[in-house]
């Protein structure tokens, strides 16, 4: 029996349709919806922590030695970075300042001197932080020297003065907490590699629960005095699940006194 080419094509098409129809259909999983707070908004309360190496360098970086006296204890771990695109759009003078910071990082990094970490650095330091949520305010407090952020949810206003942690106004966009922060001084760094900003820094953060124990953290950074365009970071935050987990105090001032005030000794430390 002869079968025409047209008949073969028709048979193949019919078979393909039959096979596709026989495959099980899978609906797209719905996006995660966080438990509700008393006001009906997503409940982000808890103790969270980043597991990235961004506090060393927000850009991709290889392992590197630290101060010789510390050996492997001070070595820099490698990191994949959290900057989308893997580069920072520095203006020429700002890039020169970054390189200068890098050379002086072991003594000039504000973290080494126990200064407040600034935003967004507080969110990826190697310390847990707690989100305490109410209808009018959301507080974020870090184990690192008790650094505190207050996010104003309904009394939005401009920063009364520049400060290390800036001034934060918040709002909800569906499942996402959006935090708009300005009013920073120019003294904090983004990391230990000397990446920096000016007092024109503007940070817009987004916190979105993606599971009971994970938040997606995103931040868009704008600073026309330092960068030629806005840029973005993103990373997961993880809920601390240890039994009776709580923030423990890390009062780093006493560990920094010699670095800050040692030159005032009658016989200065070297």
Q: What can you tell me about this protein's structure?
A:
The chain is an alpha+beta fold and 270 residues long. It has one domain. 16% of the residues lie in helices and 23% in strands. The chain has helices spanning 5-22, 92-103, 105-108, 253-261, and strands at 46-49, 129-133, 137-142, 148-152, 167-173, 176-182, 202-211, 214-222, 231-239. A nine-stranded mixed β-barrel has the order 1-2-3-4-5-6-7-8-9. The mean pLDDT is 89. The longest helix has 18 residues, at 5-22.
> How many H/I helices?
4
Percent helix among the residues? Answer: 10-25%
Summarize the helix and strand pattern as letters. Answer: HEHHEEEEEEEEH
Q: Gyration radius, to the nearest Å?
A: 25 Å
Low-pLDDT parts are: none
Write a compact overview of the structure shown.
With 270 residues, this protein is of the alpha+beta class. It contains four helices and nine strands, in the order αβααββββββββα.
């Amino acid at each position: 029996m002869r079968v025409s080419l047209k008949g073969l094509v028709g048979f193949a098409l019919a078979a393909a349709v039959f096979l596709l129809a026989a495959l099980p259909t899978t609906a797209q999983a719905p996006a995660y919806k966080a438990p509700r707070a008393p006001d009906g908004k997503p409940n982000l309360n808890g103790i969270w922590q980043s597991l990235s190496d961004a506090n060393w360098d927000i850009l991709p970086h290889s392992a590197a030695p630290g101060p010789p006296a510390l050996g492997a204890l001070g070595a820099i771990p490698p990191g994949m970075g959290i900057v989308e695109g893997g580069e920072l759009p520095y203006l020429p003078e700002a890039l020169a300042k970054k390189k200068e910071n890098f050379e002086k990082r072991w003594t000039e990094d504000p973290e080494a001197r126990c200064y407040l970490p600034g935003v967004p650095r507080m969110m990826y330091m190697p310390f847990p932080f707690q989100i305490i949520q109410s209808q009018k305010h959301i507080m974020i407090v870090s184990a690192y020297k008790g650094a505190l952020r207050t996010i104003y949810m309904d009394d939005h206003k401009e920063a009364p003065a520049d400060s290390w942690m800036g001034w934060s106004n918040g709002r909800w966009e569906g499942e996402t907490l959006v935090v708009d922060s300005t009013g920073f001084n120019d003294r904090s760094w983004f990391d230990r590699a000397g990446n920096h900003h000016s007092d024109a820094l503007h940070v817009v953060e987004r916190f979105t629960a993606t599971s009971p124990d994970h938040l997606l953290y995103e931040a868009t950074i704008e600073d026309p005095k330092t960068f030629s365009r806005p840029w973005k970071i993103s990373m997961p935050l993880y809920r601390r699940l240890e039994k009776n987990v709580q923030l423990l105090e890390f009062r780093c001032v006493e560990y920094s006194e010699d670095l800050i005030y040692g030159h005032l000794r009658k016989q200065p430390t070297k």
